[in-house]
Specification:
This protein is an all-alpha fold. The protein has three helices and no strands. The mean pLDDT is about 80.
């Protein structure tokens, strides 16, 4: 399972960022702050999955 997560860490990070954007837009907040937060969350998720192994 670790090898599979390592291969798809970027895709999982993008999925996490997309879910964050959907949540941010559903509560109708400004994307001026939401977009950089989305990028940061996606990067952190992908980074943690890639280097956890």
């Amino acid at each position: 399972m670790r090898v599979e997560l390592n291969k798809f860490s970027e895709a999982i990070g993008v999925g996490a960022a997309f879910m964050f954007v959907a949540l941010w837009k559903s509560i109708e907040l400004n994307m001026f702050i939401g977009f950089p937060l989305c990028l940061l969350i996606g990067f952190l998720v992908a980074y943690s999955l890639k280097f956890r192994n």
